[in-house]
Amino acid sequence: MPGMPMSKDGPPAFPAGEFTFGPVYEGPPSYAHGGVSALVLDQVLGMAAAATGTPGMTATLELRYRRPTPLRVPLLVEAKASRVEGRKVYAAGTIAAPDGRVTVEATAMFVMPQRFVTSQY
Fold first, then answer.
1. Which entry of 11, 67, 87, 92 is 20 to 30 Å from 29 by CA?
2. Within-domain flag for 69
C-alpha cells in the first residue's frame, strides 16, 4: 500500500510482516479504519493462498475485530492457508499489536478461476 511499507518475514507459505498504520489510515481517533485492516488481511491471505500453487480471487472474507488497531506503532500481520479443495483455498490470518494481542482476525476463501480473462477496462 502506498505510504505503508511492510517488512516481510517468514517463508512464502506463511506470509508475515511488520508494518505501521500512519495517520492517513485513521478511522476512530488514534485507531486504524477497519476497512484498511480488511485490505491488509485480504492481501496477506491471498499471498498465503497463492503459495499453495492455487492462486485465486477472494470469494469470501470474514473479519472479527477483537479490539481497536492502533496507529503509529509496529503491527504484525500473519497468514496461513489451512486447506485446498480443488480450485478453492481457505486461509486464516491476524493483525497483532506490539503487545502481541490480536486486534483483527480473518478467514477467507479464494477461488481460482477456470480461466483468467483480461479486463477490457
1. 92
2. yes
118 belongs to a structural domain: no
- DSSP, collapsed to helix, strand or coil, labels residue 65 as strand
Question: For residue 18, which phi and psi values (nearest 5 degrees)?
Answer: -110, 135
Domain that holds residue 95: 6-111
- Categorise residue 72: left if φ over 0, alpha if ψ from -120 to 50, beta otherwise: left
Task: Report the alpha-carbon distance of residue 39 to residue 93 in Å, rounded.
Answer: 12
Q: Cell 503491527 sits at which residue?
A: 75
Question: Which of 78, 73, 75 lies closest to 10 in space, CA to CA?
Answer: 78
The 10s digit of each residue's pLDDT in 42-96 is 999 999 999 999 999 999 999 999 999 999 999 999 999 999 999 999 999 999 9
Q: What is the DSSP letter of 12?
A: T
Residue 9 among the catalytic residues:
no
Beta bridge partners of 19: 6, 75
List 19, 42, 45, 56, catalytic entry: 42
What is the value of pTM for the model shown?
0.89
Q: Return the CATH number at 97.
A: 3.10.129.10
Q: Which ranges in the chain belong to alpha helices (H)?
A: 34-50
